[in-house]
Design goal:
Blueprint lengths: L9 E6 L3 H13 L5 E6 L8 H4 L24 H9 L1 H4 L14 H18 L2 E4 L3 E6 L6 E5 L2 E5 L1 E4 L21 E2 L17 E4 L3 H12 L6 E5 L27 H17 L4 H10 L1 H6 L3 H19 L4 H12 L3 E14 L2 E8 L5 E6 L1 E4 L8 H4 L1 H8 L19 E3 L5 E7 L5 H4 L5 H17 L20
Parallel strand pairs: 1-2, 1-7, 2-3, 7-16, 8-14, 9-10, 9-14, 10-11
Antiparallel strand pairs: 4-5, 5-6, 11-12, 12-13, 15-16
Helix pairs in contact: 1-5, 1-15, 6-11
């Protein structure tokens, strides 16, 4: 009797163990038998699932959407909400429940939820946590395998998934002279980054998005009552949530706009129709978010670039809303005259004795003002456009011609099936991109529901390779349909 041939076991190395990487690992582990798949998640943090977004220990940092809209299981929207009700967290943190009944738990709680769901797979050995930083990724000479070099040693793989974390914010050129100065905070999410800021300190926050709001809330929680100035080019503060949530409103997908201008006109017309129908604007943006992939796919590359360049900042402040608990802090500080948000451009800076002098020009004015602060916090947003240079693993792949930047400066050029596209314009069969770094192809990939769905899709693509003959894994596909 002939023995059955051994089952091929694919080795998957996931670079990055934040939400994107952990979700890919979780979906893979659930969908495949352990004897067919070996999953290694390379992440320097002590645990998986938290990443930059959900590992903060700061009590004032809350998720910015209701818990009922957060789930690592896209087909089960209440997955997190049910876990939350069983966990007892709401009894320990009653402030998480807003007056309309929506729940906004602390960010670290969501990270714990992800970690707990991955824990059984880690315990069984189906998923392995490689506690280290990926420093270099090399493809085998025959193209049928990879070696991921990490600070904990090499990891051999048949498939690599790039799920790297958000890069730190760029330091604006006008603030470069403050980079080493005491009181300048380049990484606002570093543990206890704000601990040295005194109660009455004057603070400049550069940026006015979600991170800026987080910093103001954390300062308030720490007892700070001094002056805060938030400065950004347009002075647009992230918007809040409605007291009563409605159903998504409008239709942007039946006849998708083919230009950025046409899309803008359609959005304005839909907002007017919503107002006339007594529907809040948030419902319009919820529909835009749901239909975003269709809208993005319908735009030619030059129109996508125009959309990113001219409208992205307006999209961000309406789409990425702040938790009402955080909005309440900003409103309270503003009413007290200790918080202001202005539109201005940075001009120069200088470290003078015990203060940080920053010069800026308000929007629409010619006069340059100089103000002195005790602390300057940089919250200009992740430097996605430089991720391929700042991350050593991504840099090694870039230098080898296996990945490249997308045309819009959002991340990595990726095919429609989530494979990285090399310098030759061809998708690399066994090199996947998961999470926000793929948004140049898919459009909206910053919100958690979208990232969760993308992680599930990446896992499904990898699972297909389990049934691919061994000689087929590692070959390049044809030219990738990057433009959609």
């Amino acid at each position: 009797m002939n023995a059955l041939p051994p089952v091929r076991r694919l080795r998957v190395a996931i670079i990055g163990g934040g939400f994107s990487g952990a979700a890919v690992a979780w979906h893979l582990a659930q969908a495949s038998r352990p004897e067919r798949l070996s999953i290694s998640v390379i992440e320097p943090r002590p645990g998986l699932g938290g990443g930059l977004a959900y590992s903060s220990e700061e009590p004032a940092h809350r998720v910015n959407v209701p818990a009922t809209r957060m789930s690592m299981a896209p087909d089960d929207p209440q997955h997190f909400a049910r876990w939350l009700s069983r966990d007892g967290e709401l009894e320990r943190d009653t402030d998480a429940i807003w007056k309309n009944g929506d729940v906004y738990p602390r960010r670290r709680v969501f990270g714990r939820y992800v970690a707990e769901h991955l824990a059984p797979w880690l315990g069984s050995g189906a998923v392995r946590h490689v506690s280290g930083l990926a420093t270099h990724v090399a493809r085998e000479a025959d193209g049928r395998g990879w070696t991921v070099h990490t600070t904990s040693g090499p990891v051999a793989a048949d498939i690599v998934v790039l799920a790297a974390t958000h890069p730190l914010p760029n330091i604006p050129a006008a603030l470069a002279s403050l980079a080493e100065a005491p009181g300048f905070i380049a990484d606002p999410y570093a543990p206890a980054a704000l601990a040295g800021i005194g109660r009455d300190a004057s603070v400049l926050i550069v940026g006015s998005g979600l991170t800026s709001a987080d910093m103001a809330a954390e300062l308030y929680r720490r007892g700070h009552r001094g002056r805060i100035l938030a400065l950004s080019r347009r002075g647009l503060r992230s918007r809040g949530h409605p007291d009563i949530r409605g159903e998504p409103f409008g239709d942007f997908a039946s006849a998708p706009a083919t230009t950025a201008l046409r899309l803008l006109k359609t959005i304005r017309a839909t907002l007017a129709a919503a107002h006339a129908a007594n529907v809040n604007w948030q419902s319009v943006f919820d529909q835009l978010r749901l239909q975003g992939p269709v809208l993005w796919a319908g735009l030619a590359p030059p129109e996508r670039a125009r959309l990113v360049r001219q409208l992205r900042v307006f999209w961000d402040v309406h789409r990425f809303r702040i938790a009402p608990q955080v909005a309440a802090v900003l409103d309270r500080r503003h009413a007290a005259g200790t918080f202001d948000n202005i539109a201005a451009r940075l001009v120069a800076s200088n470290h003078e004795h015990d203060s940080l002098a920053v010069s800026f020009q308000r929007r629409g004015q010619t006069r340059i003002e100089t103000a002195r602060f005790d602390a300057v916090i940089n919250t200009t947003g992740p430097a996605h456009g430089q991720a391929l240079q700042l991350n050593p693993a991504l840099r090694s792949l870039t230098e080898a011609g296996l990945i490249g930047a997308d045309p819009y400066g959002l991340g990595i050029e990726t095919s429609r099936d989530s494979r990285a596209v090399g310098r030759d314009g061809r998708a690399v069969t066994t090199l996947f991109v998961a999470g926000p770094l793929a948004r140049g192809t898919f459009g909206e990939l910053m919100g958690l529901p979208e990232v969760a769905r993308h992680a599930q899709a990446v896992a499904a693509e990898i699972a297909k390779l389990l049934d691919t003959p061994a000689e087929g894994v590692g070959a390049n596909t044809g030219h990738a349909p990057v433009a959609g």
